[in-house]
């Protein structure tokens, strides 16, 4: 019986020793992850060598590329969804404009003269942004106050 108890105690010691090793290994891993996290945040960089700083910069650049790719993908996906919605709305609008004309023709018959002329289709809506030269915009609209001002000079004499 005593031998059995001794073997049992040795087994517990071996098992406990494994847990201690595992604990120390996991503790070191957590410390490494925390140190890397601080480095990614730009903290505690003084202890890094030039090569380590270059590796860190490369990792951050790679991560930034992935982030930008994902952002661009989501933006293009959103734009295509909005374009589909615009086309659907245009079709609905065309149908809505066509229905009153059909109802008028049915009410008045084919011999009645129609005072409504068919309207040309609406232009396609393109959403974009283009920065304009303010001078070109002013010239295009040709909004000046000189003729009005010169007209009123004689009217408001003192």
UniProtKB/TrEMBL annotation:
PROSITE patterns: K_BOX
One Pfam family, short name: K-box
Stretches assigned to coiled coil: 23-99
Statement: the UniProt record of this protein carries the keyword Coiled coil: yes
All copies of domain K-box, residue ranges: 16-109
Gene Ontology cellular-component terms listed: nucleus
One Gene Ontology molecular-function label: DNA-binding transcription factor activity
InterPro entries in the record: TF_Kbox (IPR002487)
Keywords, comma-separated and alphabetical: Coiled coil
Protein's recorded name: K-box domain-containing protein
Lineage of the species this protein comes from: Eukaryota, Viridiplantae, Streptophyta, Embryophyta, Tracheophyta
């Amino acid at each position: 019986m005593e031998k059995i108890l001794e073997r049992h105690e040795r087994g517990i010691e071996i098992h406990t020793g494994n847990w201690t090793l595992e604990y120390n290994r996991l503790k070191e891993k957590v410390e490494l992850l925390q140190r890397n996290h601080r480095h990614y945040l730009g903290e505690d960089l003084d202890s890094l060598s030039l090569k380590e700083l270059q590796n860190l910069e490369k990792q951050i650049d790679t991560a930034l590329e992935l982030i930008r790719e994902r952002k661009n993908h989501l933006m293009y996906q959103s734009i295509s969804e909005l374009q589909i919605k615009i086309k659907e709305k245009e079709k609905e609008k065309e149908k809505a404009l066509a229905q009153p004309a059909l109802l008028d023709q049915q009410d008045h018959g084919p011999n009645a003269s129609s005072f409504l002329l068919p309207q040309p289709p609406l232009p396609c809506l393109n959403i974009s942004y283009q920065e304009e030269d303010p001078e070109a915009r002013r010239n295009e609209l040709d909004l000046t106050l000189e003729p009005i001002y010169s007209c009123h000079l004689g009217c408001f004499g003192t």
